[in-house]
Amino acid sequence: MLKNIDPVLTPDLLKALAEMGHDDAVVLADANFTGETLAARYLIRLPGIGLLRTLQAVVSVLPLATDEPHPVGFMQVAGSAPDYASGLQREAIAALAAGGIRPDQCEPVERFAFYERTREAFLIVQTGELQPYANFILRKGVIGEALRP
């Protein structure tokens, strides 16, 4: 056991997150996502744990990229307006805002474009979330000191 580590973060998930480098991506996916087909490296399943709970646990240890305009992407709901976000997606974006990510840094991504980005992801975490379109891509940032002049 470790202190101050969210229990949702299993040993395998912590290992994969720690192995990620700057700008690598982690996909947090719903239970219906085609994770097995799209996983390039790691697929970790968290059955019975919803997207929001997983998102909160992951961002508690994962720095998000600050050097790009959209460090977060979410799957656009098919047939909806480009700026539409479902209730669950809005809740996730609000949770990210608590960690310093502004809503305008969260980009809706068309479903098939989302799948293409997923093929390049370092890690897919498939949750037990039953809400459709509950899929997010997070880009890892860096932890470090300010550059010395």
Question: Any overview of this molecule?
Answer:
The chain is α/β, with parallel strands linked by helices. It has a domain at 21-38 and 56-139: RbsD-like fold, CATH 3.40.1650.10. It has helices spanning 11-19, 35-38, 51-59, 87-98, 111-119, and strands at 25-29, 42-46, 72-75, 106-109, 123-127, 136-139. A 6-stranded mixed sheet has the order 2-5-1-6-3-4. Helix 4 links the parallel strand 3 and strand 4. Helix 3 runs parallel beside helix 4. The mean pLDDT is 95.
Quick rundown:
This protein is α/β, with parallel strands linked by helices and 149 residues long. The chain contains five helices and six strands; from the N terminus they run αβαβαβαβαββ. The protein has a domain at 21-38 and 56-139: 3-Layer(aba) Sandwich (RbsD-like fold).
Protein topology:
Elements: H1 11-19, E1 25-29, H2 35-38, E2 42-46, H3 51-59, E3 72-75, H4 87-98, E4 106-109, H5 111-119, E5 123-127, E6 136-139
Helix pairs in contact: 3-4
The named CATH superfamily of the domain at 21-38 and 56-139: RbsD-like domain
Order of helices and strands: HEHEHEHEHEE
Largest sheet: 6 strands, mixed
Strand order, main sheet: write it out: 2-5-1-6-3-4
Percent of residues in helical segments? 25-40%
Number of distinct beta strands: 6
CATH class of the domain at 21-38 and 56-139: Alpha Beta
Mean pLDDT level: 95
- Radius of gyration, in Å, reads 15 Å
Q: Based on the coordinates given, report the CATH architecture of the domain at 21-38 and 56-139.
A: 3-Layer(aba) Sandwich
CATH topology of the domain at 21-38 and 56-139: the name is: RbsD-like fold
Helix-and-strand structural type: alpha/beta
Number of helices: 5
Q: What portion of residues belong to β-strands?
A: 15-25%
Q: pLDDT below 50 for ≥5 consecutive residues: which ranges?
A: none
Net shape = globular
User: How far from one another are the termini?
Assistant: 41 Å
